[in-house]
């Protein structure tokens, strides 16, 4: 399995998470369409927030990054948020 963490901070990040919180059902539906989807978490932090996506392979996490980018551009572009800091890697342990 592969995972990707997208961290949003700085200008517009808090506003982005306000929008995401209002549209959690839409975001969940979108993430579930990612091929090889395993799990998704969206969380606030003091300066914005982050998401973690787990998929069966790298193609899935790459798809999730693109879908998130497209969704934000379409639904939260007015927040002025910058692109996220992205970290990706192989899953060592996944507990559910």
CATH topology, anyone?
Alpha-Beta Plaits
CATH hierarchy: architecture: 2-Layer Sandwich
What's the pLDDT, averaged over the residues? Answer: 96
Biggest sheet strand line-up: 2-3-1-4
Instruction: Describe the main β-sheet briefly.
Output: 4 strands, antiparallel
Order of helices and strands: EHHEEHE
Number of strands: 4
Domain count: the total is 1
Strand content: 25-35%
Distance between the termini: 14 Å
Report the C-alpha radius of gyration, rounded.
Answer: 13 Å
CATH level-1 class: Alpha Beta
Q: Helicity level, as a percent range?
A: 25-40%
Annotation field: number of helices: 3
Tell me, what's the shape?
Answer: globular
What class would the helix/strand composition place it in? alpha+beta
Which residues form runs of ≥5 with pLDDT under 50? none
Describe the structure.
With 96 residues, the chain is of the alpha+beta class. The chain contains 3 helices and 4 strands; from the N terminus they run E-H-H-E-E-H-E. It has a single domain, classed as 2-Layer Sandwich (Alpha-Beta Plaits). 39% of the residues lie in helices and 32% in strands. A 4-stranded antiparallel β-sheet has the order 2-3-1-4. Strand 2 and strand 3 form a beta hairpin. It starts with a strand and ends in a 6-residue tail after the last strand.
């Amino acid at each position: 399995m592969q995972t990707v963490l997208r961290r949003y901070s700085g200008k517009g990040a808090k506003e982005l998470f306000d929008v995401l919180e209002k549209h959690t059902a839409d975001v969940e539906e979108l993430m579930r369409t990612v091929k090889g989807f395993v799990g998704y978490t969206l969380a606030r932090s003091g300066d914005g927030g982050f998401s973690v996506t787990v998929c069966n392979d790298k193609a899935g996490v790459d798809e999730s990054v693109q879908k998130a980018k497209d969704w934000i551009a379409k639904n939260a572009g007015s927040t002025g948020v910058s692109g996220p800091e992205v970290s990706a890697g192989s899953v060592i342990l996944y507990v559910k």
